[in-house]
Amino acid sequence: MKTYEVCVVGIGAVGAEIVRLLKRRKFPLKRLIILARAERREVIDGEPYTVRPAAPDAFEGMDFAFFAGTEGAKGASKTLGWEAVKRGCVVIDNGDDFRMDPRVPLVVPEINPEALRQHRGFIANPNCSTIIAMMVLAPLHRVAAIRRFVACTYQAVSGTGSAAIRELEQQVRAWAAGRPMTVEAYPRPIAFNVIPKIGSPVEDEPGWTTEEVKMRRETRKILGDPSIRVSATTARVPVFNGHSEALHVEFARPMSARRAREILLAAPGVTVADDLANNVFPVPIDASGQDKVLVGRIREDPGVEHGLALFVAGDNVWKGAAQNAIQIAEKLIAGA
Amino acid sequence: MKTYEVCVVGIGAVGAEIVRLLKRRKFPLKRLIILARAERREVIDGEPYTVRPAAPDAFEGMDFAFFAGTEGAKGASKTLGWEAVKRGCVVIDNGDDFRMDPRVPLVVPEINPEALRQHRGFIANPNCSTIIAMMVLAPLHRVAAIRRFVACTYQAVSGTGSAAIRELEQQVRAWAAGRPMTVEAYPRPIAFNVIPKIGSPVEDEPGWTTEEVKMRRETRKILGDPSIRVSATTARVPVFNGHSEALHVEFARPMSARRAREILLAAPGVTVADDLANNVFPVPIDASGQDKVLVGRIREDPGVEHGLALFVAGDNVWKGAAQNAIQIAEKLIAGA
Fold first, then answer.
1. Which site among A6, A49, A152, B76 is 20 to 30 Å from B140 CA-CA?
2. Which residue among B208, B216, B246 places its CB closest to the CB of A233?
């Protein structure tokens, strides 16, 4: 079997998970190195890794470079991405700098693997909330054509990175001990709270955040349909890992709950958890550490013609980031 | 000043708060008694109260009876409500047994006080999430006519009652101490989780929960417009107190964000918290212990004609229940 030289750029929450999942998924590794701002030693699951400074030459001889796109590595793909491509390395970027770049395919392997054809060595991983929504919406879209959806998200702190995970943990421990909470990762405490702002304000769309606008732009690019209307409210909740989303969808053609359930039962990477009477529905603690996206609460929505409502939960660090990035590389190896 | 004989039926999370708010709001009390299933002593804010068994005769001579409608008092208004009315007492019921009864006005005093005219002694308090949404939607509806809205809720455990508050507290403490969590109040742990089921399945609307259907039915009754379409997903989040809601609204006529902000700045019982760039937006920890409902994230939604999106947070035990009930009595006293 052919094996590959792989590097991971940035070693925050997503970077560490890429390293873990490469092993877990038995990715055909010849060598795995980590690149970051400064040289140091890093231990992941008891295994020591050498972290080398991220510089253009570091990509010589590499087959794949995963840019984790969070924390210390923010912006690394901007300065180093095309340098890596120049050296014959395929870049898979989890960050948001190139997702809307027309040279760069934006790929969820189960949904639009055809976008990988004739790639130029640089592939973008969509936003975590977008990937999780796409996993259930794309199979339905193919059958009944989505005209619009409203997405309200319940996003976990792991999406912000490891400092935010520690902050929720610290805040809850402080609360339990009767000590004051430290507030740094978010503008307000996240423990026992909901923060309806993810990302930053978008200049040309007053009132909207980058996270909300990404959902619309990326959906259109992934589904190849610029007419789909997307209205999102993205909010952070005190959950460690696993993003949830309430989706209210309007189709061009009829889509019964029964038909939607059939389609989703057959959809790759999706698990249907939908038995309300018996308390079966998607929850983030079940989605966390799962490679599939959970969908439930599937019901016809009489509020709009051909309406359907559903609730999804997915591991934002796995399928929403690290896993999807690795799946892209796997697809390329398999000759998509 | 005329004073009134008042009783509170049921002394869970809402009942206790009715007692507290009657004092806080300086309600003109002649006497305040508590009725519940069994006789006992109850201490609220250091003050002892005699709890008498709830029976028809207990309402003799009473001017107002607040049925708290939670926990031990569930269903009390069904067996005792009209008995109290027969004895000349005005019943204000926080439960959901009579909200859709055509004999019973469903009232948010800032929104539809006219519904109190010619009441028959029995008035219903709407559902907490409905009240909080109505506080901001009704003033906008009057100007531009709502055709449809999608509401996705982020509801606090206090809405379930005191046992659920204790359960979130216990689960978080267990987590901090590395002990297993007890799961009783909800079908799944609520700590660090999201539970997308509130209430129970509705028989004639497959897939929908009672909480979701209430929002549509009660909205139509309060606004007196049976054509309004409402699509709700209601979910519980690990927040102690304060319900939040993402609202995506479609109006019949234009409604700019600027105009909406002006209207809401002038709306009674509403505080506008809307400055995204400076991290000003509604959060439940700010809404808790506030008699006003917070609204922010006000933005035009190009996903639909005359669309507007907003985010609200309100104290579900206060404005969502106890406070609204007391305001109804105050309105009646003032001669609505």
1. A152
2. B246
